[in-house]
Structure prediction request, 627 residues.
Amino acid sequence: MSIAVLSQVYAEARRLAVAGSVVAKGDFRLKKLIPPLQQAGAQAPVFAKVAEAATAVVEGPETGSAEALLELTALASAVLYTQGETGIDGKLEPVESSSLGGSTLQIPAREMKPLLEALKGKGGGRFAPIKEAVEKGHFRDLRLIRPALAAIDDGYADVADLIADKVLPMYGSAVLDELKAKYDLKGTKGHPRRLKLMHRLDAAGTRELVKDALDKGSKEVKVAAISCLGAEPEDRDYLIEQAASKTQDVRAAAYEALAKLDHPDAVAVLAKALQGKDLFFALRAIEESKNPKLAVLLATEVRTSADALLKTKDKKKASDIADRITDILNSLPDVTAPELDAVLLDLFARRAELAKVKGTTFSGNDVVESVVMQMADGSMAARNALVAAHAELEPSQLQQAFEAGRVCLSSEKLYDTFAPYLTATADRKRKKGKDPEWDKRESILDGIDSDFYLYQWLDPDDDEDDSDLDDSDLDDGPVRERPKPNPYDPRWLDVAVALKHTDAVQALAVPDHAGALAFAQAEFDAALKKAKQPGEVQDQIVTLLRVEHPGAADAFFAGLAKRPKKPQYYQYYWYSNIIPRLPASAIPRLEEALAGFPKEIVEHVAEEWQERITKLKAKHAPESSDK
Prediction:
């Protein structure tokens, strides 16, 4: 009872402090608490002291009311602090918890706040920052689990799908209870996603929920439940039945589930769908299943359709068949299947015949282009065949042969095979398509440029490994291993400098190459003379950085100084991307530059600049002695 009274005294003292000590004299609320305090003081002298302090507040002079109130508050607070309990009665039990697995992190507040706003907000413009956060692995921050769980109901489907497909699965079984608690089999929007996600995380445990959804669920939840079937033999007949449904979404879900089954009846249903109006849905199901047996089915379809294409004389029919073949080729699953190689090599050998077939919209040339694209990213046999035919290819196909050669040829052999296309005489003044030699040169240069990812190079930390987010449970077949391209022969850079091709020099750059250093400096000097704003020299600054020119930092600040009367913030924002590649000596100048930006620039770019300056400092900070 005495502690309860003391708590009331403390509360009244706080109230009087807010109201002002001058009104404390004679306060009836505090005054009525004095007798109980005095009574408690008979047993514990400390309560008698609190009673005296309270009396001094309500009966003392106004001139000393502030000091008296402060003394009462401090005394009551001190006594309450010593009387607090640090435990509870009863048996200790472990707190129920779930392991998330993998690593966790804690992102800074300046990144957390806009991400939370994007997750909880409405309207457009939110997908990009959320996707970027996924790619950077920011959702390993445990504070984002509940916002992510709520985002599965987001009204913008792209956001909700991204969260359900790439974010929540990384938390594993830890989110199952929350998903089940919020799941409504009669619901729409997020509830089909909940069911599919629960099945993905715990297929056996979700089996009854899936069966209930088939009988009682809303249309959307039923479609989701159909896509979860296939694990049990009893599912097959039901899925075959649903593949004949009048509802398109139901048929698509049935194809998705049937594509996971290794049974002749399931294959027969998909083969029939390939012949009709459901071609797109059947192809999508087969592509996602990564089933090599279904890849054989597609190979057979391509071969049969190609034979029909070569025989038809009707342009409308030819266009329809060519369209169908390209759709199938562009949807081939990423698996190892000899039958796929065989059909690609056969069509490639017949490319001259196919090219002669003309259609109203699609023609044989479209089929050849799709074949070449598949070979460039295909097996070693397909790549080698494409490279071997490089001299016979159209200029538009040469880039694919070059990219295939990056993998299947040695560095020296790649140069000897394809460099002559760069050194051959070509007429720069002729228009595209008028000079094959020029078009072939541009095709090889495009191939070189496609291998260089500027933003990833500028700030590799922004491209963190997101392997935790891989949709690994879809890898049901033998996924083709992707070999890494061989490094470039040093002679390529000599040719790029001789051609004065900036993009190629950037892509091929190596340190201490005399020609590249001189070229980069000359390009920058020429651009700086003409520049009226920072953005007009940013490419040249990147080239200087790529070749590790000692004057790259000076060039950065010289470009930044090209400030127009009405500066555009986005150019200064872009310059922040370059900061991670600058030397440590640039840090003081960067901070000075940021401090001197106009207000209209600072409000847009200050956060990005400061973040990258901080990264640059961390990058060049001396390692601690215990490392």
Notes: The longest helix spans residues 599-620. The chain has a mean pLDDT of 87. DSSP finds 36 helices and no strands in the chain. The CA atoms of residues 402 and 447 lie 7 Å apart.
